[in-house]
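Exam revision sheet. Question 4 asks you to relate a sequence to its structure. Input first:
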Amino acid sequence: MIIVIDGLNQHEFKDILDEMFKLRARVFGDRLGWEVNIQDGRERDHFDDLHPAHVVSLNDEGEVVGCMRLLQTTGPHMLADVFNSILDGEPPIRSAQVWEATRFCVDTKKLGRGRGKNSVSYVTSEVMIGSFEYAMDAGVRDAVAVIDPVMNRVLQRSGNAPYDYVGTAKPMGKVVAMAALMDCSEERIASIRNYADIDHDVFLSDQQARALFDKSRITEARPANKDHKPLSELETYFVEQMAAARTEDERQAVLNLIECLSDKFTPEQKTALIQTPRAFAHEA
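Answer key, structure tokens:
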């Protein structure tokens, strides 16, 4: 399922973005060997600071398994500022109705082969559907994407073939890069849906995405409670207070109180309450 994280809601999903940057590091740095900026196991660049829209796929366990970045072409973007040699001296695309799609990747270790729901093919189509539908709703008519020949074949096989190309393909380090144009249209979306057999709404609400992602944190929190003992009355109180918190200030106030009463908890309990309060709220 898809959550779109942009300049309006990114403050609510910093943890999902963090997992997305880790996925990008594993794919672009470790698997593909691209020369990208990786720090502390996370891949990001200065274009991520321009408040792009990140289209993120979460699996049924709430894990980040795919993503794509959408950026307006009216300002800095990769085709204009990084891959401009593809343009053969022509001016870069500048239009409020054309967005750039970059940093597409999927988690091949968590996803299988074939065409099923938890496959690379399915998540690829899901991210594409989410990206095109989101862009179309924003009034965008076309997307330009810097891709390599392998990705070009993937798009052609999956009902998502580019309708044209900008400039000419150029060697870029270990790969050949080309700029593909794809229309943001009902016809293209229908073609991808038909290929992937996806007929449902792929989007999660912010609340649904929050709950689903926190589901993955419950599993990570379990080692702190290996014996599965019931929560104490004090722990239950903090769980209830954290669940009722609606703002970051309210959440911080609960954390401050936990810190003040730290002598009431074992180190394991304290770590669980502070690091994974949402997970405990769902456990309760």
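Marking note for examiners. The chain has two domains: 2-204, 217-283.
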